[in-house]
Every structure is written in structure tokens, then in C-alpha cells.
Design goal:
- By secondary structure, the chain is an all-alpha fold.
- The chain has one domain.
- Helices cover 59% and strands 0% of the residues.
- The chain has two helices and no strands.
């Protein structure tokens, strides 16, 4: 096998896992915050990586009653300028 080609493949073995780790962090951070704001354990965001389970968890998150009180609306709206 060509040593140049072997060197290129060995570089991919380093870059691909680093790329996947960065993409997973970018994907999980918003779900971590959403689960926490919904009043659930933020560790549920890790389940979002599992394909079918992540899809089901989106439906759970969309239709379950959140454990946080709703934000109260102001009694008087500020005047529009």
C-alpha cells in the first residue's frame, strides 16, 4: 500500500472522531437546556442521540405538561411608541 495513502487514512482516524464529538456537543447542548427548562433531568438529552428514541423523546417533550410554572403576563402592556 502507498505510504502517502496510509498516512492520509491515519489522519482520518483522528479527525473523524473529533468531528463527531464536536457535532454531538453542538447537537446536545440545546436539548440539555430545553430539558432543564422543561423541569426534567437534563441527562435525558443524551437519549436524543439514539435515533428512534430521540424521535419519541421529541414527542414526549412536545406533549407532556412541563413542570415549570408559566410566566405571568403583565397586567398592563407598556405604551407603543
Amino acid at each position: 500500500m502507498d505510504p502517502h495513502l496510509l498516512h492520509m487514512f491515519s489522519g482520518l482516524f483522528v479527525l473523524v472522531p473529533v468531528f463527531l464529538l464536536v457535532m454531538m456537543v453542538i447537537y446536545l447542548v440545546p436539548f440539555w437546556m430545553i430539558w432543564k427548562k422543561a423541569g426534567f433531568s437534563p441527562w435525558l438529552s443524551i437519549l436524543m442521540v439514539v435515533p428512534l428514541v430521540g424521535f419519541v423523546m421529541l414527542y414526549v417533550l412536545a406533549f407532556v405538561d412541563w413542570k415549570v410554572p408559566p410566566v405571568s403576563q403583565p397586567a398592563v402592556l407598556p405604551p407603543r411608541v
